[in-house]
Design a protein that fits this description.
Elements lengths: L1 H28 L2 H16 L3 E2 L2 E5 L4 E10 L11 E10 L1 H5 L4 E8 L2 E6 L30 E17 L4 E16 L6 E16 L4 E17 L4 E11 L2 E10 L7 E12 H6 L12 E16 L4 H5 L2 E14 L2 E15 L2 E11 L2 E10 L7 E12 H10 L8 E15 L9 E14 L6 E10 L2 E10 L2 E10 L2 H4 L9 E9 L2 E2 H4 L23 E14 L2 E12 L4 E9 L2 E13 L2 E14 H8 L8 H5 L7 E15 L10 E13 L2 H13 L7 E14 L2 E11 L3 E10 L4 E8 L2 H4 L8 H9 L18 E8 L4 E5 L1 H71 L1
Parallel strand pairs: 5-7, 6-7, 25-27, 26-27
Antiparallel strand pairs: 1-3, 2-3, 3-4, 4-5, 4-6, 7-8, 8-9, 9-10, 10-11, 11-12, 12-13, 13-14, 14-15, 15-16, 16-17, 17-18, 18-19, 19-20, 20-21, 21-22, 22-23, 23-24, 24-25, 27-28, 28-29, 29-30, 30-31, 31-32, 32-33, 33-34, 34-35, 35-36, 36-37, 37-38, 38-39
């Protein structure tokens, strides 16, 4: 014991002396200033940038240690003035014993407040690309080194580090702050057992975006690991990698073999068993949209994936090694302004190689459920295959309407109730070039639909819609107030309409059948508003003619419009690739009508239109009332027809055959074809035409004026041509006003250029030659020397004729008396009458002379014949007397 004390008494001072001597020996051999200079010079040379070092310190006990303070690396030219790397201090300590045994054991490497700045310029260069100068192009030695001894690193630590990323062009910055790490590393001589374990914490992640003003901070990430690497064996064992994002945890484990070969083999599992959707959503920057702050998310998600197999560079082979399962349970989503959100959200998605299966995705919003499932195989093939798809759900319109009322997006007076169910199933190849190969079928049903809208009668509807990948069919029954409607519509090859570029020239075909027993349009149509100006822009281009053939039939047993009843209305429309033809007919009380409309598209600015209409014995006012305020063209003449409502009465007949072309605004100017019409046993009431004509006739004689014009027949023979109506004949016959006949032209701008001949009734013709007639005096001044009664032209019936010119427009015609024509024609008629009388007298005289001569001739012939007979009789008597005498003589 005493010996031990003596040894200790000698050893301790000796060790102290050796330590002091060693310390001064090391400082003498490696002075801090020299080490700092070496770091600056060699660092600058190796990195190609200026390296600065503040100070260097050395410690010997209890371990050999080195501390370098205030290290910085200059930034590249063209970037900010901040250093690319700044480090407050680097501490390195090594155990003396491990050096003496030639098994270095590094106690600690510690980086205090490292700060790395990574910048990207507007031209795409970054500030770290030029580190180290030009790259060495010599081929690297790939042989594994062998260490002279085993090496262990007990602790690698980072304290309060920071990494900053700046995109100078986009103005985006990302900062990883408060980085702390603690890790250990051990390496054997042959590198067959390399082990590392540790934990990394990033306590502050912030993002800023100059363009959008996005700001985000307070994000925490933790990563802990336990790995074993066998470099000669080319294998990696992941005992544990745990990743935390806020309160979201993920776990990784497994192995990777032959990881340096072209075909590594993996068996790695990644799992996150409980992900809070609320926590995950909380990390979405609210600066993206202020509405995000009003969203509410709840539920739990889980994720598990496994990679097991060869990781070939061929992605189709590599993907077969992947499997994954994603699920969500008890999910819910809502918004502060929406009183009803999504609840009961569930999802189970499984990936197995190139197959994707959605076992279920379902949720409900109030009483409205929804669900979908599918299986897709060959997801990486050029044409994946949909093995099955099922979609189903239901809509409660009463619930949705109440929701819309609460959100104030629907008028509270609008009420909707009833349900709609829907389902869809599909399978087949997902080939965009041949979508018809996908087998699809679905069904939707309207159940007990009831709709109440202000100013419209209540509506009830029910119907079924079915569809496949080839056909869509809708069967719908609607009751709207007094009206009912049944629609049966089918569309075949509808994909040719949706995707004409891949239809191969096929055309869709629609067959529509509409039937109604009662259609009360007075209940349904809005009040007419013809007085409102039409501010709609003129059509500049027709839409492209659709790849759709259609056959549409409409049958309305009884239709009511403007208190008028039409029966037996039918419409048939046929649409084909180069034409559309619509035929319709109907009965209106004792009359009827039929029409045909043909459209021939030539290009997007020129459609040919043919229109035929035949009306037979329809009450004129009824017919015009049906058209009132529904004239489709912006033409003054056609629009003026709306003013004849409640003004024309009688039995109306019409036969027109019109053609036009171009855009709608050019229809009137391009219109051509005949228009024949007649109205029998009718009258005109309150029309400007009759008012103006009555006023003109009253100026001739007060007895000729009238308030309404009754006539036995009003007929017209018109021809649409060159932007106007050529009036070949427009005439009427009235007991009170006589007969009238007009000819000339009516422009589609409403302008008038007509001549009118008015034949007065016989009772009124005598008034014109009476004393004090202003018209007679005017005509005598124009034709002096002619007897007054002869100044008025007359027709074959002896009725006096009055001539007018009609100018102005259709709405305000101006009748002007053509007295000059009347005087000229009257004077001519008087001269013709005198010549006729002279000829008559001469003829009578010549006739009398011829009769006298003939009488005298006949008398002379009779006297001669009488004398002849007398002479013959005397001769016969003389002869007979001679024979008598001769007989007596014997």
């Amino acid at each position: 014991m005493k010996l031990l004390k003596r040894i200790l008494l000698i050893a301790i001072p000796l060790l102290a002396i050796l330590a002091v001597a060693g310390y001064f020996a090391v400082r003498a051999a490696f002075p801090p200033e020299k080490i700092a200079a070496i770091v600056r010079e060699e660092g600058t040379k190796a990195l190609g940038r200026e390296v600065k070092v503040g100070s260097v310190g050395i410690t010997l006990f209890p371990r050999l240690g080195l501390r370098v303070r205030d290290v910085s690396l200059a930034n590249d030219t063209g970037f900010s003035n901040e250093p690319a790397l700044a480090l407050k201090s680097l501490d390195l300590s090594v155990g003396w014993l491990s050096l003496l045994t030639f098994s270095p054991r590094i106690h600690q490497i510690r980086l205090v407040e490292p700060d790395i700045l990574y910048e990207v310029a507007a031209d795409g260069r970054d500030n770290l690309a030029s580190l180290g100068g030009p790259k060495d192009s010599t081929k690297a030695d790939t042989a594994l080194p062998e260490l002279p001894a085993s090496v262990a690193l007990e602790s690698f630590a980072i304290e309060n580090g920071r990494v900053r990323y700046h995109d100078l062009k986009a103005g985006t910055s990302v900062t990883l702050g408060r980085i702390d790490q603690s890790a250990s590393l051990s390496l054997d001589k042959k590198l067959t057992d390399i082990r590392t374990a540790g934990e990394l914490t990033i306590s502050e992640i912030s993002v800023s975006d100059k363009a959008s003003g996005l700001r985000k901070g307070g994000v925490k990430i933790t990563v802990s690991h336990d790995l074993r690497v066998d470099l000669p064996g080319d294998s990696l064992r992941i005992n544990r990698v745990d990743i935390g994002f806020q309160d979201i945890k993920a776990h990784v484990e497994g192995s990777l073999k032959a990881f340096t070969s072209p075909l590594p083999v993996a068996d790695i599992r990644v799992s996150a068993p409980a992900i809070s959707l609320a926590s995950l959503f909380a990390e979405v920057p609210k600066e993206i949209s202020p509405e995000l702050a009003r969203l509410k998310v709840a539920g739990t998600a889980s994720f598990e994936a496994r990679v097991k197999g060869v990781l070939d560079t061929n992605s189709r082979i590599a993907i077969r090694a992947v499997s994954a399962d994603i699920s969500v349970r008890d999910g819910s989503f809502g918004h502060g302004d929406v009183p009803q959100g999504v609840e009961g959200f569930r999802m189970n998605l499984a990936v197995r190689g190139d197959s994707v299966r959605l076992d279920t995705l379902s949720f409900r919003s109030g009483p409205n459920p929804f669900g979908v499932s599918f299986l897709v195989t060959g997801a990486l093939d050029s044409i994946p295959y949909l093995r099955s798809l099922k979609v189903g759900g239901e809509l409660d319109y009463g619930n949705l309407t109440a929701l819309a009322h609460k959100m104030e997006v629907l008028d509270p007076k609008i009420r909707v109730s009833g349900r709609q169910t829907f389902r869809l199933a599909a399978s087949g190849p997902l080939d965009a070039t041949h979508p018809e190969r996908l087998v699809v079928n679905g069904r939707s049903e309207l159940i007990g639909i009831s709709v109440q809208v202000p100013d419209l009668p209540a509506m009830k509807a029910r119907g079924i819609a079915t569809f496949t990948n080839e056909n869509i069919r809708q069967q719908l029954t609607v009751n709207l107030g007094k009206s009912d409607l049944a629609v049966d519509a089918t569309v075949r090859d509808y994909l040719a309409l949706l995707m004409p570029e891949s239809s191969g020239g096929r055309r869709a075909h629609a067959a529509v059948d509409v039937r109604s027993s009662v259609m009360d349009l007075d209940e349904l149509l809005p009040k007419s508003g013809s007085d409102a100006p039409d501010t709609s822009a003129p059509l500049k281009r027709y839409p492209d003619w659709p790849p759709l053939d259609a056959d549409v039939t409409v049958t309305l047993a009884r239709t009511r419009l403007m208190n008028l009843d039409m029966t037996g209305f039918s419409l048939k429309s046929v649409v084909r690739a180069k034409s559309a033809v619509t035929d319709l007919k109907g009965s209106l009380y004792t009359g009827g009508f039929s029409s045909s409309l043909a459209i021939t598209p030539k290009d997007t600015t020129d459609w040919g239109v043919g229109f035929k209409l035949k009306v037979d014995k329809v009450e004129a006012n009824d017919f015009i009332s049906r058209l009132n305020d529904r004239i489709p063209l912006k033409n003054k003449l056609l629009r003026s027809l709306t003013g004849t409502d409640s003004a024309i009465f009688g039995k109306f007949n019409l036969n027109l055959d019109l053609n036009t072309r171009g855009l709608p605004d050019a229809f009137a100017n391009n219109l051509s074809g005949p228009i024949l019409f007649s109205i029998t046993d009718g009258r005109l009431v309150g029309v400007e035409w009759t008012k103006s004509l009555s006023s003109a006739l009253a100026k001739v004689h007060s007895s000729l004026g009238y308030e309404q014009l009754s006539f036995s027949e009003l007929k017209g023979d018109l021809l649409a041509q060159d932007g106007k109506l050529l009036v070949r004949d427009l005439s009427f016959d009235s007991q009170r006003a006589g007969a009238a006949k007009a000819a000339g032209a009516i422009g589609f701008d409403n302008s008038l250029n007509l001549t009118l001949t008015q034949a007065l009734p016989p009772s009124a013709s005598g008034f014109l030659a009476g004393a004090g007639s202003a018209l007679l005096g005017q005509l005598q001044r124009l034709a002096p020397g002619v007897a007054g009664g002869s100044l008025f032209p007359t027709d074959a019936q002896g009725r006096a004729l009055i001539y007018y010119t009609v100018k102005g427009d259709v709405s305000s015609p101006r009748f002007a008396l053509d007295a000059k024509r009347m005087a000229s024609e009257g004077a001519g008629n008087a001269a013709a009458a005198s010549a006729k009388e002279a000829l008559r007298a001469k003829a009578e005289a010549e006739g009398r002379a011829r009769l006298e001569a003939e009488k005298k001739k006949l008398e002379e012939q009779a006297a001669a014949e009488k004398k002849k007979l007398q002479d013959k009789a005397a001769a016969e008597a003389k002869k007979k007397a001679k024979k008598v005498l001769q007989g007596l003589g014997k």
